[in-house]
UniProtKB/TrEMBL annotation:
SUPFAM superfamilies: Dimeric alpha+beta barrel (SSF54909), Winged helix' DNA-binding domain (SSF46785). InterPro entries: AsnC-type_HTH_dom, Dimeric_a/b-barrel, HTH-Siroheme_Decarb, Tscrpt_reg_AsnC-like, Tscrpt_reg_AsnC/Lrp_C, WH-like_DNA-bd_sf, WH_DNA-bd_sf. GO terms for molecular function: sequence-specific DNA binding. Residues 1-82 form the HTH asnC-type domain. This is Transcriptional regulator, asnC family. Keywords: DNA-binding, Transcription, Transcription regulation. Pfam families: AsnC_trans_reg, HTH_24. It comes from Heliorestis convoluta.
Amino acid sequence: MSLQEKKMILDILQKDCRLSVDQIALMVGLPSQQVQEAIRELEENRTILKYAALINWEKVEDEVVTAMIDVKVVPQRDVGFDQVAERIYRYPEVKSLSLMSGGYDLSVVIEGKTMKEVALFVAEKLAVLEHVQATATHFVLKRYKSDGAIFDEKAEDHRLKVSP
């Protein structure tokens, strides 16, 4: 199977991982067995890391607090930011972690039940790590779009159409 065909399969799965192998095979014009084998290979070599649903938790829970935390780190000899990043991403509260360019080195996204829970994570777990110099926490006030999905529901327009 060509790299282009694998990329087509990955693109389809990224948009909707609920599709069956048969549906994907039909979309890319390949036999189901070949698509199944490609998906298995992509899972084994960790190209496909996880299948997940994007949930609008505000619909089912009272409060979910998301924070984006900028972290300034002193890089370590021979490993740079990797050891500090590994210590941070092992916390279950951490949803994502990226090395960034600019004024801060790492961008950490966490979720908690309350602002206090997030604040305690920063104060007691993150800011006290060796080699962490500074943090800046930004709380998400409203999510409009995430992973291509729009969260904001638009009310139906009940106005009458005006014709010339």
